[in-house]
Structure formats: C-alpha cells, structure tokens
Design a protein that fits this description.
The chain is mostly beta strands and about 150 residues long. It has two helices and eight strands; from the N terminus they run βαββββαβββ. Helices cover about 15% and strands about 40% of the residues.
C-alpha cells in the first residue's frame, strides 16, 4: 500500500504553506504583468478589496492594492518595493517568458544565464533571468537543467 505522502497531489490541488502577498500600487497594472506577460492565472479575486490570488504551476502569490481593503504596512512604502528579496519561481522553460517580456518591451533586471549551484555533494543547474514587476519586486524565473553526463 502506498502512503498518501508518497504521491504528490496534482498542481491544481496544491495549497502551499508559504504564499507571499505583495502590496501593489495598481492591481490592473500588476495583473497585466503577472497574468498576461508571465503566464499566471487568477484563481480568485475580490475587486472591492483590490485583491487577487494567482497561481503558476505550484507557485502561488497574492496581490493587494494599497489603499483598497486591509493593508498591513510596517514601514514607509518606497520604490522599488520588496528591497532585499527576490522571488524564485520555477517554470518548465524560461524562453517563453523571455519572449513575452521582450515583445512587450519589458526590461529585464538580469539577462538570461545558465548557472550551476553547489548543493552539498552535487550541483543543481538552472537557466534563469530576473525581472522587476511594476512596483519593483524582483522576480527570478528559473528552469531546471539536467546534469551533464
């Protein structure tokens, strides 16, 4: 008999234990970036509260417009927002996103690269690039590379 923990649930049923909620200055502008350009889908929204819950694969995030609804703001909001953090989001391939952003003339923070990171006794390879969302949050889209044989 297989234990329930042995088989991960389908992506549509994943409820992550960590979901960042990003305060944004304009929800419509942010939705254009995250949904239209970066391929996320809106799982649900509360328009009167300026709120949307998004997903791409197993990556989840929430967007909440400043001044609409209940905002938890511990300090002054100065651009770029989210200073000191970048959100790594795994995707099957970065090329689709790079092409989408280029077509929209959206600047990249860091050009695509291939990078190998030490992970103890092995290495993990990724193709990755960084981009800032409309409010300056830094996003690192990555796709896994197969180890060289």
């Amino acid at each position: 008999m297989t234990s329930p923990a042995a088989t991960p649930p389908p992506a549509s049923e994943v409820s992550p234990d960590l979901v960042p909620e990003l305060l944004v200055t304009d929800l419509a502008t942010s939705l254009h970036f995250w949904v239209t350009l970066c391929g996320f889908e809106v799982l649900y929204e509360r328009p009167l509260e300026g709120f949307a819950y998004l997903r791409s694969g197993t990556a989840h995030l929430m967007l909440e417009q400043v001044g609409a609804g209940r905002n938890w703001i511990p300090g002054a909001l100065e651009r770029p927002l989210g200073r000191g953090i970048n959100f790594q989001i795994m995707v099957p391939a970065i090329s689709v996103l790079v092409d989408s952003l280029a077509a929209a003339e959206w600047p990249l923070f860091m050009a695509p690269e291939t990078k190998w990171y030490d992970t103890g006794e092995t290495q993990a390879g990724v193709a990755q690039f960084l981009v800032q969302d409309p409010d300056g949050y830094l996003v690192r889209f990555s796709s896994r590379l197969s180890p060289a044989s």
